[in-house]
Specification:
IF-3 binds to the 30S ribosomal subunit and shifts the equilibrium between 70S ribosomes and their 50S and 30S subunits in favor of the free subunits, thus enhancing the availability of 30S subunits on which protein synthesis initiation begins. By secondary structure, the protein is an alpha/beta fold. The chain contains five helices and eight strands; from the N terminus they run αββαββαβαβαββ. The two termini are 34 Å apart.
């Protein structure tokens, strides 16, 4: 709401020698000086609001500015309500994980995917495990095969980090 009020000039803040004026009903009144347009707006107990400052001449509309600000804030709030935030959950695996621990973590991944969250599966390698990275990659491939039915799989294997990103299928 504050962004709207910072950019828009109203009443006495409107600059320029000539402006194009539009009435509150939407019909064009014509080109006139800002003072004359402001007098016309005050007669109707409304505000003169600069709609298009970059046009030649600038376009101004006679309207109730408080009501306009309220409508803009309500539209912004409604648009924000309809947005869906993407949450990324991370589950870390090691190459030498036990089968029961792996099943527990896979259960977590399924739960996260069930709640429409993205899941990042990271392979953590300590010390000499880095020399045998192919074992970890094979484990990540097994996990990827397991979730191909319910999630889109994006594989990323760089030198230091190896991870999968699972996005739930629509």
């Amino acid at each position: 709401m504050s962004i709207i009020s910072d950019k828009i000039r109203i009443n006495e803040k409107i600059r320029g020698k000539e402006i194009r004026v539009i009435s509150e009903t939407g019909e064009q009144i014509g080109i006139m000086t800002p003072g004359a347009a402001l007098d016309m707006a005050r007669e109707r107990e409304l505000d003169l609001v600069e709609i298009s400052p970059n046009a030649k001449p600038a376009v101004c509309k006679i309207m109730d500015y408080g009501k306009y600000k309220y409508e803009q804030a309500r539209k912004a709030k409604e648009a924000k309500k309809n947005q869906k935030q993407v949450i990324v959950k991370e589950v870390k695996f090691t190459a030498r994980i036990d089968s029961h621990d792996m099943e527990t973590k896979i259960g977590q991944v399924e739960k996260f995917l069930g709640k429409d969250n993205k899941v990042k599966i990271t392979l953590v390698q300590y010390g000499r495990e880095r020399m045998y990275a192919d074992q970890g990659i094979s484990m990540l491939n097994q996990i990827a095969e397991r979730f191909t039915a319910i999630a889109d799989v994006d594989k990323k294997y760089s030198d230091k980090q190896k991870h999968l990103i699972l996005s739930p299928k629509k």
